[in-house]
Amino acid sequence: MHFDPIGFIRSPYTDKFGIPRQPGLVTAAEARLELLPTFAREEAFKGIEGFSHVWILFVFHADCLDAGWRPTVRPPRLGGRETVGVFASRAPYRPNPIGLSAVEHLGLVKDARGLALRLRGIDLLDGTPVLDIKPYVPYADSFPQASSGFATPPLATVALPVRFSDQAQTDLDRADPHGERQLRALIEQVLAQDPRPGYMDRYPQRRDFGIRLFDQNIRWRIDPDGLSVIAIEPFAEPA
């Protein structure tokens, strides 16, 4: 079997740290699935406008393709302390590193970069190869009474308050002057999920962190009553 991608994700998540653990948790996260020329045909999407959400089947490409699979993994939901079988998880290190996400689609756009499908609520790293798109069908794909094992609902249903320092607000005005990136909302929603690994409670002395969104490095701090964004700086690739 051999599969070729139909396109690639262009996402605000330019680093794995900070990506929400499931789709739909950060609604400000918008992306484009940019289709390769062979598949950039509008007739291939005829009828998709009737569906609000789609399944995206993708490849875990970052550090996974050549890493091999692991029979047991330590899910973040369990704080990285307990192991479960890889087939009882959504971990990326699988025999075939394939993932799926149910996300909202906002329709097709055709511009100088080609044909793309706009997506919202994504949890995908920038550059992710996509293998297929399928419509999400609520009556068949949703099982509200299903049990979810150790994958309990996120505690961040009560979101942590996120504050911006004066410096961070100045930086935000520079990085997203017209709000086209929804950068403030994106930062607030990502940080409200508390993106730190579950094992960080072993290191209570560490308070300062950073995540990368788009081409910006977001520096933030854990406070007793929430989170503070300290600064937003252009990300510089190491020399």
TrEMBL record:
Alphabetized InterPro entries for the sequence:
TrmO-like_N, TrmO_C, UPF0066_cons_site, YaeB-like, YaeB-like_sf, YaeB_N_sf
Domain of life according to the entry: Bacteria
SUPFAM superfamilies attached here? Answer: YaeB-like
Q: Does the keyword Methyltransferase apply?
A: yes
Q: Which GO terms describe its molecular function?
A: methyltransferase activity
One Pfam annotation, family name?
TrmO_N
Where does the record place the TsaA-like domain?
3-145
A GO BP entry is:
methylation
Alphabetized UniProt keyword annotations:
Methyltransferase, S-adenosyl-L-methionine, Transferase
In the record, the note on similarity to other proteins reads:
Belongs to the tRNA methyltransferase O family.
PANTHER family (UniProt xref):
TRNA (ADENINE(37)-N6)-METHYLTRANSFERASE
Q: Write down what this protein is called.
A: tRNA-Thr(GGU) m(6)t(6)A37 methyltransferase TsaA
Instruction: Give the species.
Output: Thiobaca trueperi
